[in-house]
Known about the structure:
mainly alpha; 25 helices; 5% strand
Amino acid sequence: MGKVEHLESPVVHYAEPTTPIPEPPENRVQRWIVKLRWPIFALVGFILIVSYNGYWRIGRDSALYRSVANNLVTGRGYTFRAQHEHHIYPGLPYLLAGIDKIFGRQDPLHPRAAMLIMMVMSILTLVIVYHLVSTYFPPWIAVAVTTGVGINHDFLQQTHELMTDLPFLLGASMTMLGIARLPRAATTSRKAWFAVLILLGAVIAVSMRPTFWALLLAWIGACFVGLFQSRRRMAYGIGIIIAAAVILAWVALDPRSPGHSIIGGRYEQKVLATLRDLKDVKWERNIHKLSTQHLPEFIFGLELPLPWGPLVCAVLLTAGVLLVRKAPLWGLYVIVTAGMTIVLGAAPRYYLMVLPLLLVGWATFARWIADVSARWYRSIPFAGELVLMFWLGLATGPHLVRDSGFILEQHGYAKYYTHKTFLDVYLGGDGKKLIAISHELSERVAAKAVVIGFEPRIVTYLSGRSVFHPAELLRGMRQAQWPAALHKSKASWIFREKSAAKRGGGVLAAKLFRTRAIAPVPGTETTTNGITLARITISDTMVRTKPPKQPTTRPATRATLPATTRKAAH
Length: 570
């Protein structure tokens, strides 16, 4: 393998050239990965394509994006439930609105054009990731990382979701590829192309998710490194100016913040409130979840208990941070992302934005430990190859198993391979209930009516009516204030699932009836799929409910039961 050419960006600092360290000779596994790259890529493409079913995977966040997009198309502006939307970033709503304008209004349950565009974005992301990694690392690492991204369960799921995670990864990868390739461009046209790639990727990333702040902070940090370590200080100063211009342009154009404030959105307000009270951050819990659940599940497809989870995650993050030796932007991006998820909390899919970088770090670790094993265990045939296959397989094998389950779900296969419809399998069939009650609302309830119910984002989108969770209307209020708040909300209908009182706000809804804060209008109640819909009246007073009497004797618990009774109960 020839030397990997070192590149330095005029915008973001990369390490100064040093005396090259000779690469160890490639083993058989590394050579075969490169030789078999096209069959491997074909397998990845097959997994992505065969998972397609054209259905919307019903979800709260995607329902909110689609609702705002629908309001943009119909001329009601950047709104949700007739109120200005301050929460979600505008990139995906505007993209979905553009798809509706070009391809026609998408079916609520079968948005085929939108789903196909998400798949195209997924494949384009893999192409960009391959070229990004191959800029600094040998071809076998580029093939391994691209494959690891493509078969990652969360990446596969986001390919078939209407969410911002995948478009953000595409934008961030485009920006990093443009930064990496701009210095090596030999012609003016290619330089212009990579500059456009940086700009386009930044626009996509900035508009999609608040995690663009992690990329921006890493960008600024890499520029400051360049100011102190490189002779091209002017170029890195320009990079900082560009970052400042991006922030100013975002604040000026952000539709969530009519007052053009950098903290005009709810995401930013939440982060600011958290930073003000760092003592309230649950550090131990967040780190435990990161190291045993979220990060292992995302990278390796399974949770890892103590002590293996923290040990493996420490190796993974260390390998990711050490990428600063090749590209300070990459290493700083991993550091900032890990810090943000520890402070603010995270879900496994939140690491998708640094998935290629973490897999690059993992591949370099696997190569290092394989080379060490080959030197230490010369008497064992193919020791280095076996070790490399094990560590690379740890990041791919479990995901292939999970991918098979996802494919079966997409095509309506339940447990024991019994075939049903997708909606019967997805969410345990709850999606069909939400669709049914949404249809009932659109048929019986006036367009401008306010409805109390559960899963408000999903039902609002599907029904076209303004649905609120009871906790949204009564948050932070005493019971005596409930009637005034309900009158102010102008709620006139309610739906609830009586058989699942503890789910979806059923307890609070039941309490509203029990205290007679609301009462059903006689003759208006109908039940569909176990969900009761009724028109309501709001009273001006409430009936105080007596708390249940405490038992005079202490109830028997498992610890106080006689041994024979405990054995029988067990």
